[in-house]
């Protein structure tokens, strides 16, 4: 199997478009392509799935150990011809100013996979050599197998005369022998629209197979894909590591999962761990479905409830069923968008949408993000966990609680810590309902998933 990490010098250089183009081009050739995404990202993996036809999986050096990342990569890439890992932010960006934890470079080195470095070459000439030289020589342990120049703005930079190299190529060749595998002209690939939480979702009706096909065509046109593939060694990886169970327990707990355009942010590995703990997952849509019957618990992930406020608030049958479910002390777990939905509702500019009302506070959509890796330790108020657990996750939200609507006596069950803001209480609890802005990665402590399933089973 061949394996490649696609990283950028920074965010916004086009690594997602190039990653999708390479994935789709390889799939068109009949190759089995497995994709991965570095970091806490729920949106890019959805685009990966369109390009490869397979579920994409997250790798993360801050939330998960080296062995966990190796196990996940080895497990999900089995039987594939090529594994493509899309990086996060700039190749060396991660947790904090001096640590490589959570960075693309860390994952590439842990897995022993070479890096294709994507460089935004717009409005540059010889200076591109200084930029590339800095990245190539910053970390001698990182294997950079080639450069892809994107957004090349001057056609003279890609015009070949008697020299096999463009002007940009000549500049880079003066400081490094690392090959340039392609120069992609500005405006030659479509840009995926963005909103406040990132790119538009892959399933939205302005996107589709057409843009994936366009990316594949551009990749074939401007990238030496054959040469790039031939340069990659077969991935062997380290010796087998533990971490991925093989058996399946008795599936005797039914947990509903809110999944539609409003609730779409889930780590696929979280769902896998719930199944491994004995849960049958029932996907339902709070936008259009009735409240499900014969379930033992409910998991509301993040997403965009603020974009679908009117439809969510109009589905009174679902909201009523959820309130009754909460009143019966059945376990309910909501993350971020789930917190919004379990609250009284959300204010979006001049509009106010009323939701489940299980928690007494209101939320409001702001214009600045609250984000960062976050670790939590559960406290004695936790409705699911019977002993203290440490779990890692992240926050990324534009909404906030309206402080004057938060009763001072409402209990919390997390002691949270973030590099940016230090210690703070989190995880609001009423009955057996838990709402939090933290997206937890269950693989960082699988006991959390087990105890949630146990609570749904009625053992706590």
From TrEMBL:
Reactions catalysed according to its record: cob(II)yrinate + 2 L-glutamine + 2 ATP + 2 H2O = cob(II)yrinate a,c diamide + 2 L-glutamate + 2 ADP + 2 phosphate + 2 H(+)
SUPFAM superfamilies: Class I glutamine amidotransferase-like, P-loop containing nucleoside triphosphate hydrolases
Required cofactor(s): Mg(2+)
Metabolic or biological pathway, per its Swiss-Prot or TrEMBL entry: Cofactor biosynthesis; adenosylcobalamin biosynthesis; cob(II)yrinate a,c-diamide from sirohydrochlorin (anaerobic route): step 10/10
Catalytic residues, chain numbering: 336 (nucleophile)
Marked site positions, Increases nucleophilicity of active site Cys: 439
Matches recorded under InterPro entries: CbiA/CobB_synth (IPR004484), Class_I_gatase-like (IPR029062), CobQ/CobB/MinD/ParA_Nub-bd_dom (IPR002586), GATase_3 (IPR011698), P-loop_NTPase (IPR027417)
Pfam family, any one: GATase_3
Residue ranges constituting the CobB/CobQ-like glutamine amidotransferase domain according to the UniProt record: 254-445
PANTHER family in the cross-refs: COBYRINATE A,C-DIAMIDE SYNTHASE (PTHR43873)
Family: Belongs to the CobB/CbiA family.
HAMAP family per the UniProt record, alphabetical: CobB_CbiA
Note: The a and c carboxylates of cobyrinate are activated for nucleophilic attack via formation of a phosphorylated intermediate by ATP. CbiA catalyzes first the amidation of the c-carboxylate, and then that of the a-carboxylate.
Record-given protein name: Cobyrinate a,c-diamide synthase
Source species: Phormidium yuhuli AB48
